[in-house]
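ok so for the tutorial part 2 we go from a plain amino acid sequence to predicted structure tokens. step 1 is just haveing the sequence, like this:
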Amino acid sequence: MFDIACYEEAQSVEHAIELMLAKPKARLIAGGTDLLLHIREGKLPDAELISLHDLTELKGIELEQDGTIVIKPVTTFSEVSSHPLIKQHLPFLGEAVDTVGGPQTRHAGTIGGNICNGATSADSASTLFALNAQLQIAGPSGIRVSSILDFYKGPGKVNLAAGEILTAIRISSENYRGFGGHYIKFAMRNAMDIATLGCSVICKVRDGNIIDDFRLALGVAAPTPMRCFKSESAVNGQPFSEELLLKTGQLAITEVNPRTSWRASKEYRLKLVEELSKRAFREAYQKAGGL
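step 2 — the prediction. this is what the tokens look like for a chain of 291 residues:
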């Protein structure tokens, strides 16, 4: 049974903001793949819901004149991974969202919901961190833009004030052009499971083997998704080598703070950080054209 006390369908973003201000306890719902589970489990009794599902203004993927790729939040995972712009420019993001759940979840779940639920295990988050994604947010005071690096405030907590809604994920051309990337999800099962650890690496390569603009982002390695800036600084400008891979993994484990849970111990997650950082780096290097 779903204990739902009130359900409203927003007719526009402005209408959704009005409804949220009128019903401060209400939760936004689009795909509902996470939220409905919480309701069914009794974690949200007498739930009040505001649906964004039918808002076409929050769906789709566009390429702006300056090269910025705009992903609307109510775009499903399947729509993201199959979109021509993603396949051409951001295949590693498509790769990441294709690891979410099973086919049914990917057809219903949305990339905006994946970010806004605040989970460190969100499969899209680490790659969006590596891409320096900017989040466009609408609210009672108008529109503001936040870096995704500043959006996560803690487990299940994001930087959305009362009445605010994520309306776009923006990725500028300088943050994707020339990059190769790779995402690895380590989970207890191959499908229908959340990440024990997620690792995303993107980089550029010049002169055949010199690493440019290396970025390493992790999920479930801390209370929120995170970037490994110390590791990135150590790698940038260096020629690719097995020694550099080893150094990257060793540095990465000094930057993270994973916890012990029933899925894995802290010590096991540290081993995963070290190993997956190396594997994702190797794949990203090859996809960026490294020799």
